[in-house]
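Async update (no meeting this week)

Hi team, since we skipped the sync, here's where things stand on the single-chain job. The sequence we agreed to prioritize is pasted below, unchanged from the tracker. I ran it this morning and attached the output directly underneath so nobody has to dig for it. Comments welcome in thread, and please keep replies under the output.
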Amino acid sequence: ICVPVLLIGIILLSVHLFTLKNVKTYLEIPLTRLDDDYTAIIDKQNTYLGHPDLVLTDDSKLLTFYPSGHGKGAIIGKYSTDLGESWQDIKNTPASWEKSQETPCVYNLRKTDGTSILVLTSGSPYWSDINLMPDGFNCSVSYDNGESWTEFDNWYGQKWAEDKNKSEGTDKYAAYDAIVAMSSLTQLKDEDGNYIDKWLGTFHRGASEYGMDGGEAFVNYATYLTFDEDNKPVWSEPVRLLDGHRELEEKYGMCEIEIIRNVDNDCLILIARANNRVSNSVICYSDNEGKTWTSPKELPNCLTGDRHKAEYDPVSGKVIISFRQYLSNGKKFKKSALSPDLYLTEGWVAWIGAFDDLMRFASDNVKDYTYGDKVVILGKNYNKADCGYSGVVILEDGTVITDSYGYFSPTARYPYIMQAKFKIADV
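Output:
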């Protein structure tokens, strides 16, 4: 009796494996792999390293920061004075960074008076083995191109909630459950189109029952950053970013939002991870500086994945979007008893295209549009989809410098930090 059953099982498995398709089959544009000559290891240790961000300072240093753990752990920093040709350790970092509880995000903010301030943020969400309760987010700043940093200053955490409830005689306030804070930080403009010293920051909450809006999963928030007369950061109390589209926000599990300003028409384009895996990634846009957004729409397969980071290349006029590729088993892919969690990925990739492509994806009733130029595999990942969070810098000459974490070799025991440096002409 066992022999026919075994034979049927072998036949079904063979048919299943034979009919599986690869990533290239599903992409609407060509897929290529970046040559290894354009990549280099920044940090590789006998432990887990993950989720980096990257920034270029005004004195032409590259700074990258990442946690010594999966999304949490002491923040490690490296710097490069030769645009990524070599990297050194950043020492004497703030003691409070040792207890970072989320992925660090770093930005170089250029104020209207010509000065710059580096801002590093890290969320303090509910994690069962670290935080018993959410604790808002932390912020550290540097006024000297990263030579020194302030200790973490906590915003909208437990102390804020306690003080707020005490002063108002209520119990309605709770700490915010901030995940990937700030996934994006975008300088805003006034009604005349001039930049102002105000930045739109975004983060999201997960499915925890704790914190503000407890019980609601994947609520995205906006908090506005300004600076006081002493140049210290001031974050506004968070408000819902996509409140007018709550049904779709919840349905898709929108999170890890990236916002890029369209240089062609000055609108803000928003791209989100769709964590519920029932759809592709999602896009919408705002023509009023983020006050309201168009209805979220699904992106094509070539832009589907997690933690998008977008930058504009002024030399080619193209947009480069780095992300973790994740083609899920939603409506695009069939589940089976043999492969209930089927997804397809090459790992860390970059989409290259135009603002026009992104606007068409986000618009209604647009037909016959192009899907971009190409998807480039920056780092083939060899351990499922644990990779791809990245920082992206584009130099004035069009050189793209980006780094990410992942298992970028078949023998890697732990993920490590790797850099990709190239020009669009190279791919």
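Quick observations from my side:
The radius of gyration is 22 Å.
Residues 184 and 258 are 5 Å apart (CA to CA).
Reply here if anything looks off.
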